[in-house]
Amino acid sequence: MAKTKIASQLSKEAYSDQTKYKAMEVAMAATENINQPFWECVQNYNDRIEADEFCVVMVIASDPLVKNLMRRKFYCWPWLPSPRPNQTVLLFNKKLQKFTKRLWVLPNAITMAELTEPSLIVDPAYKTMQKWSKAFFKGCFWEYVRKEHKIDMLSQEEYFKLHAEDLENTRKELIKSNFNEANLNGTEAFDFSKIQVKDMEHANAPIS
Fold first, then answer.
1. How far apart, in whole angstroms, are the C-alpha atoms of residue 194 and residue 186?
2. pLDDT at 163
């Protein structure tokens, strides 16, 4: 019976791999079968969130132990999460039991910065990502997203300010429901441990 390779073994193979990978091919592979973990995350949180709509968040993060391993982390949030690089946020409707909006998709930090350069002309496919990135650096991200999608959902900070008098009870309810961004739900290995930035053609090109 063949043994499953552990992350450290895959990492070692990555450094010895001389294959050149195209950024678009990597992006297509990254989004393959992406619906399943989003739905699994919804199923884990669906009964714990009372609101009719909530955010389903995916963050791509580096592994703390294996240098060239990336992980996709999923969690649900009853308000708009703070925007950050390598983040995708969808809006889920409980009554309809479906995703109704793609609120935003932010690339890595370097690409976000490049997208905000005044002289940069991007492909139409990346125009929306460019607008999100500009709103992020201007400090008006939530306002822009709400106007774009015609929603009125509050951010976590705004929610706590609005419910300041009942803040202690709100926190107790969140703890009871296990809403803790630091304890992200549904973490899974991002299946590109073979791929490093130095091995990618056009590594800094924005990818939808």
1. 22
2. 73
Q: Look at 9-23, 31-45, 119-133, 162-176 and tell me which has the smallest mean pLDDT.
A: 9-23
Round to whole Å and give the CA distance between 105 and 130. Answer: 10
Which of 1-10, 69-78, 82-91 ranks highest by mean pLDDT?
82-91
Domains of the chain, residue spans:
19-194
* C-beta separation of 81 from 156 below 8 A: yes
Q: Quote the percentage of the chain above a pLDDT of 70.
A: 59
Among residues 100, 98, 129, which one has the least CA distance to residue 113?
Answer: 129
Query: Which is it for the CA torsion 145, 154, 106, 94, positive or negative?
Result: negative
